[in-house]
Amino acid sequence: MAELQEERAELKRMLCADMSVKPFSELFSVTFAQRGSKLVGDVLFDAIEKAGYSLERDVDAIGALTAAAVPMVFALIHAAERKGIALDGFVMDFVFPATKGPSVKGKRVLLLDSWLSEKSYVQTSSLVTLRHGNELSLDFGIVHQQGAQILAIVALIGGVDADEQGMRHLQLVNPISEESTKMAFVQAFGEEELRADADHEDCCNDNCCGGHCEVKCTGDCAND
Q1: d(Cα 187, Cα 114) in Å, to the nearest integer?
Q2: Neighbour count for residue 83 (Cβ, 10 Å)
Q3: Which residues constitute the domain of residue 90?
């Protein structure tokens, strides 16, 4: 447990550092880094399990909603493998509506994205868009038509408020049919939490000031 808490804190610092220099990021500087990939996998694994989904008993495959989520799918597959759990991965293709990867027919799947909040998608051309706080425009029929069951949407960073019971949900709206369905949402980190810390000493560049600045780190060593 202590090791996981340390990993989470380390990943949080990496994410804050990435977020501090840009309004939105696909997080590739973290997710494609060897250390970052391991941390992402372990933290996502823990968040999913804490949300009540056993990756060993309940889940068969992890699907990337966007290109930014592809390295995260691999990170989660490897995290599960380290625990003796076999998971498949796939990626959504919205241009030619389909999934790419092993067949998802009859499988229980989680759909994964890197950063899912209303603010994040204002600045992208992604076909996966969040609006009105928790309404996700997503052609989920692509997965259903192939015989898969969607259990939940998962994001490394999320901006969806919890309800009175502490649960988070998205309202999936099919942009083609306008069909709507309520779906559980799992986030490893809250966007507001990271945004606040991105301006705090914890997100200082370790090479700059050792993570102990008393003022906001701007990239130049505040201790010089």
Answers
A1: 10
A2: 10
A3: 41-189
Considering only CA atoms, which of 150, 143, 156 is closest in space to residue 117? 156
Separation of alpha carbons 129 and 10, rounded Å? 29
Overall number of domains in the chain: 1
Nearest to 26 by CA among 77, 66, 62, 64: 66
* pTM, to two decimals: 0.81
One-letter amino acid identity for 46?
D
Burial class, 201, CB count within 10 angstroms (exposed 0-12 / middle 13-18 / buried 19+):
middle
| CATH number of the domain where residue 143 is located | 3.40.50
* Domain assignment of residue 151, yes or no: yes
Grouping H, G, I as helix, E, B as strand and the rest as coil, residue 64 is strand
pLDDT tens digits, residue range 12-65? 999 999 887 776 788 999 999 999 999 999 999 999 999 999 999 999 999 998
Q: How far apart are CA 1 and CA 222, in angstroms?
A: 34
Residue 217 lies in a domain: no
pLDDT digits (tens, 9 = 90+) for 174-213: 766 777 788 899 999 998 888 777 666 444 444 444 443 3
Whether 167 maps to a domain, the answer reads yes
Alpha-carbon distance of 62 to 75, in angstroms, equals 11
